[in-house]
Amino acid sequence: xxxxxxxxxxxxxxxxxxxxxxxxxxxxxxxxxxxxxxxxxxxxxxxxxxxxxxxxxxxxxxxxxxxxxxxxxxxxxxxxxxxxxxxxxxxxxxxxxxxxxxxxxxxxxxxxxxxxxxxxxxxxxxxxxxxxxxxxxxxxxxxxxxxxxxxxxxxxxxxxxxxxxxxxxxxxxxxxxxxxxxxxxxxxxxxxxxxxxxxxxxxxxxxxxxxxxxxxxxxxxxxxxxxxxxxxxxxxxxxxxxxxxxxxxxxxxxxxxxxxxxxxxxxxxxxxxxxxxxxxxxx
Length: 283
What we know:
Blueprint: H1 3-32, H2 38-59, H3 65-83, H4 87-124, H5 134-143, H6 147-150, E1 153-159, H7 162-169, H8 171-187, E2 194-197, E3 202-207, H9 212-227, E4 236-241, H10 250-277
Antiparallel strand pairs: 1-3, 1-4, 2-3
């Protein structure tokens, strides 16, 4: 049993003893008959028992000492008012607690909604780049599974030699390349286009209602921007497919674009490896 558990047990024992003593005092006063309005006293005493429930269900295992101290202070004030038979004060005290509880619950609901919204966002977005993630991409494979109907074009993009970047300059530099690639690709796409990060350095772009010439123009703009990138050896391999009527499913288009991308990647890698041999890449 660790020290933290022992501390919680001691606090619980002392708190229960404290509450038990208060209960005995209040019951003894009731039985002694020195109470002017026994109905108001019973009402106030019944509400006091709610403090037991609050403690036993919510505060017993709390690590927040501040909440526990606030709760104990409320108990002390409440018991003093009850003992002195200040029933009007007690009613205002209860009303204040109810009002505070409603406000607190409202804030908790708002916090929950924000957290829920964030969870929904993260469930379909890549945290590093802000793009859609693979889960969203898989859903789109089902939603747009008839390429001809949606007149789709597809682009697969993969950052070249990211492993070399990571090995020689660290993963922080590699992450910068990934973020830079994501921003670059997104900047050249239309609002209706869907871009997803489907792997560590791989991106899939689905272009709805896009004909052959439109797809070529988009890929040309992207390639031009890649060449103008300030990082000397920043490079991306692309594979793009159009003419969706030739494919039965979107997955077939993705696979075809993927094969094209790897073919282009091999050619680019061969050229980059020659640069490595000349030791130009790490100047």
